[in-house]
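INFO  loader      accepted 1 record
INFO  loader      residues=431
INFO  predictor   begin
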Amino acid sequence: MAASPLAGAALAAAADAPADQLAILGGAKAHPTPFPSWPVFDQTEERALLDMLRSGKWYRGSGQMVNRFEQAYAQLTGARFCLGTANGTSALFTSLNGLGVEPGDEVLVPPYTFVATINVVLRQHALPVFVDTDAETFQMDARKIEAAITPRTRAIVPVHLGGNACDLDAILPIAARHNIPVIEDACQAHLGEWRGRKVGTYGQAGCFSFQASKNLNSGEGGAILSNDEDLRDRCYTFHNNGSGLKPIGSFTYSSTGTNLRMTEFQAALLMAQMTRIEEQAKTRTENARYLTSLLKEIPGIAPARMYDGCTRNAYHLYMFRYDKAHFAGVPRSVFLKALAAEGVPASGGYTPLNTQPFLKNALHSRGCQKLFPGTVLAEWEERNRCPVNDRLCEEAVWFTQTMLLAPRSSMDRIADGIRKIQANAALLSRA
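INFO  predictor   done
INFO  writer      dumping tokens
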């Protein structure tokens, strides 16, 4: 395949610049060509959307595409039941309602996650309680869960962050001992596995997102997996404005609820995107393993570790920790700028959720003051300190899943860029 004009120009410019000089200081880029774009689509998606448009059956009350997607995703993951929702946040919110989390309850959550994991707890007028992070894996530290449980605890929501799996061997027995349901937040973990079985199928519910950045993408969309038929039915009722599984539009209501339904268009797009998901997942896995073999040899770079039970990492994110002590004290922010200049885009990831202003505002709200004893709210900040996570948020570096769809040679160039920054770090520290 012929190189694009832009790629050719980038390569020509790189050839004229010193190979060992940092790109941020005028040298050649370590990775001069763009990484793959996202989403990936072709006539498969075009046909799916046009067929749906022409059918005139655009919502699940009149169409069959959401039903087909639910059956296909349940089969793909090995779950008994799947319920499509409007997005991943809706999946989490619906699951909390289906499991009976109520105002005044507590829900255990990680501090290193997307804010939706916390927002859905607050929208239930429940109290999020943070369990500190295992820095080596970026996951909720299962060793600290039991100490966070109180008589108010009604759910545990571990997040399979970045597609890496939580320590389910530790989490599930703790939850069982205390009779507390587990909602797996697998929004970033499509096809991820724990001991050969798909994540999202171990807890009472498993929640997925199909938002535009996700490995399975319909712009927006979500799903709940469960092996519990009664829970599936309760979730269906809640996400359908309190109307039960059959029939839609009957105007009879068995509970309160809201409209969080997946559309037929979302389902059609997901069915098309699912034709690629396995091949893309294999490419990410192969590239991630190779990249890890390169980066773990660079002092100061520590790729996220997987627990022994994680038999497949979905690699929505490729995560590692950056230790500036091995880079002449160069701050992470400068490292990220230098890396971007090398043609390797990266992010510093999440900030500590447990210290965000929105939580203080929520705790001081009129509703929270009514629901929780003053002693509970007064002790909340001290109880929810997460020192390991605080440090992780200063050291974390992410690559997005699209970078892992590049050729294997791109993994070499990523490592070359980091090595070049390390070799010239003293120049950056003086700049």
